[in-house]
Amino acid sequence: MASINPGRMTHRYDGELVVFHIGMTINKWWRPDQWMPLMGDMPRMLRELSVDRESGLLGFTMLLGARGPYLVQYWSSLDKLYAYASAPDQEHRPAWTRFNKRARKAPSAVGIWHETHLVERAESIYVATPPMGLPRVTETVPIASRHDPARARLADGGTRDAATRD
């Protein structure tokens, strides 16, 4: 079990930061032949990315929404995210091909969605929590008194301009 960080913590990260949300909606629960294979594909992709230090994946959190599971992923580069998505020799392309083949046989049984956010600034606060979210995939730092207000943390929360931050 992860230890609890005492006090008020935030994250620090210098470099390109991409937050990628990806999930599925299970529209026909009575069609597990359509959604169960997807449940098996994602862990293989995450394992592949997690063991490859150069993949660009910084970390991820799996969540369960009202219509199905989704992931919040943190990436070090938009180019690395797109490279993985299109690489024919890695897990994503074959999984995507299998999904499309199944989707033609049972349209709208399962939906797939994603959002890609290129982050220029980010503000975070975590009080008495284990490492999670941005601090888990970047650097966890205590909140100094000058960064007490969220507005101050956001002002100094640029992910590309490390020279202006202390």
What attributes characterize this protein structure?
4-stranded antiparallel sheet, 3-stranded antiparallel sheet, 7 strands, alpha+beta
Arithmetic mean of pLDDT = 89
Q: Please report the number of helical segments.
A: 5
What order do the strands of the largest sheet run in, or round the barrel if closed?
3-4-2-5
Helix/strand class: alpha+beta
Give me the Rg, rounded.
18 Å
Residue share in helices? Answer: 25-40%
User: N-to-C SSE series?
Assistant: EEHEEHHEEHEH
Q: Strand-residue fraction?
A: 25-35%
The major pleated sheet works out as: 4 strands, antiparallel
Shape: elongated
Low-confidence stretches: 161-166
Report the span from N to C terminus.
Answer: 32 Å
How many β-strand stretches? 7
Tell me what the structure shows.
The chain is of the alpha+beta class and 166 residues long. Helix content is 33%, strand content 29%. It has 5 helices and 7 strands, in the order E-E-H-E-E-H-H-E-E-H-E-H. The chain has a 4-stranded antiparallel beta sheet. Strands 6-1-7 form a 3-stranded antiparallel beta sheet. Strand 3 (57-65) and strand 4 form a beta hairpin. Helix 1 (32-51) packs antiparallel against helix 3 (92-105). The protein is elongated and about 60 Å long. The model is unreliable at 161-166 (pLDDT under 50).
Summed up, what is this model?
This protein is an alpha+beta fold and 166 residues long.
